[in-house]
Amino acid sequence: MGKKFLIITASVGSGHEKAAGAIAEGVRKSFPHARLDIVDFMSWHTSAVNALMKGCYLKMLAMVPNLYEFMYQFTAGKRKGGFIQLLMAYAMSISIKNLLRRYEPDVIICTHPFPAEAVSHLSERWRRRFLSAAVITDYSVHQMWICPHMDLYFVGCDFMEKQLIADGINQSTIHVTGIPVGQCFQHELDKVQCRQKLNLALDEPVVLMMGGGLGLGRIGLALEQLETIGESLQLVVVAGRNKELLRRAEAARQHSHHKITVYGYTGKINQLMGAADVLLTKPGALTLTEAISLGLPMLLHEPIPGPETDNARYMSGCGVAIWLHAGDNVAYILRQLLGDREKLAAMGEAARIARKPEAVKEIVEVIKENMDLSNYGYWSGSD
Q1: Are residues 302 and 258 in the same domain?
Q2: Which of 307, 325, 352, 372 could be disulfide-bonded to 138 (CB atoms 3.0-4.6 Å)?
Q3: Over 70: is that where the pLDDT of 247 sits?
Q4: What are phi and psi of 85, to 5 degrees?
Q5: What burial letters (b/e) apply to 29-54, b meaning 16+ CB within 10 Å?
């Protein structure tokens, strides 16, 4: 009988779900006879309470991002963060118990800290062990990811391993694999072919503008600022699920002297990145990881306070991105960068050094090794 895998993600932005999908690709390849289920922990189908929390989170990001930053910083320390973490684990343990009973998994993989907390909390009380793994989908470790009873941790960089060790996590459980991305991002693409497929000119710069699956990051304002660049550019805007941004980008296309192409939520991100010279984006970790996997230089702006600030700091420190701060002239900086081919080439090379294209393969191999070492399986647990 095949093993049972349960991947628990969260639909708060697309990054956690993209990581889950990438891992699922690897599991299906290595375990063709396994049962694999992917569950959105923050959906109404899983839990009404979780879904309400998701709604509050998204409204907070849109309306009062400074409050989110306060909450992020408030829960960052062990004392306050650990207490909040324990409360969250208790509150969400019912959802996890229901999932355990419904799916009877041998392996649980979490790509969001909320289910990871609850899984860690329950695993010490469950009479038969399952193998549990946390895949951290940012380039820093927040207190909410510190789950002492998690069997395996997968992180994006060496610095995160040091953070986890400092917070008391056993080094033997930590694996620096990189953040997992889909198979279509694991090899660089030919720029000419990508442009031809997308009907983009070969002789004009292409700037890809993204704000993640939710289309965040004030891309509409950036479009207005880029009108001050006299040279003609090809601007490709990915609005994601943001209907207002889609409307504004379509309106800008009508009067801009640049050539603007607009997409909603699309499955062509790898081709769009392959065609681009520069990516202008908010620093969501999955978007950043996809970009460095394809050797694409980046301009980072409008980070969500907290994790995305850490992501921007890491990427700019690696030399793969320029972090735009409040007051910076995005049009001037972009124009200077596009005119400096040596700088662009150096940023692309830095991306190739930083990338970890085998993340999915390594994650699945480590999980398989640990499954082989122990006879993991499911029994009903204590209440």
Answers
A1: yes
A2: 307
A3: yes
A4: -60, -45
A5: eebeeeebebbbbbeeebbeebbebb
Query: Do 94 and 148 share a structural domain?
Result: yes
Residues 134 and 67 in one domain: yes
* pLDDT for 380: 47
The separation between the first and the last C-alpha atoms of the chain, rounded to the nearest angstrom, is 28
Cα angle 218, 269, 331 (rounded to 5 degrees) comes to 40
Q: Are residues 17 and 145 in the same domain?
A: yes
pLDDT band at 334 (very low <50, low <70, confident <90, very high): very high
Cβ 280 vs Cβ 209: under 8 Å = yes
Which distant-in-sequence residues (6+ apart) come within 8 Å of 257 by Cβ? 227, 232
20 sits in which H/E element: helix 15-30
Query: Which uninterrupted H or E stretch holds 39?
Result: strand 35-40
pLDDT tens string 353-376:
999 999 999 999 999 999 876 655
CA distances from 345 to 102, 193, 272, 324 (A): 51, 19, 18, 19
Q: Which domain does 250 fall in, by range?
A: 187-354
Highest mean pLDDT among 121-130, 237-246, 250-259: 250-259
Q: What is the DSSP string of 86-149?
A: HHHHHHHHHHHHHHHHHH--SEEEESSHHHHHHHHHHHTT-SS--EEEEE--SSS--GGG--TT
In this prediction, residues 265-274 reach a mean pLDDT of 95
Range in 61-75, 85-99, 347-361 with the lowest mean pLDDT: 61-75
Q: How many structural domains compose the chain?
A: 2
| Residue 212 falls inside a structural domain | yes
Q: Does pLDDT of 377 surpass 80? A: no
137: CATH: 3.40.50.2000
At residue 81, what are phi and psi to the nearest 5 degrees? -65, -40
* Alpha-carbon gap, residue 233 to 229, rounded angstroms: 8
Cβ neighbours, 10 Å, residue 375: 9
CA 117 to CA 134: how far, in whole Å?
Answer: 10
The pTM (predicted TM-score) of the whole model is: 0.89
Are residues 173 and 271 both part of a single domain? no
Residue 199 sits at φ, ψ, to 5 deg, of 60, 40
Say yes or no: 73 and 173 in one domain.
yes
When the pLDDT of each residue in the chain is averaged and rounded to a whole number, the result is: 87
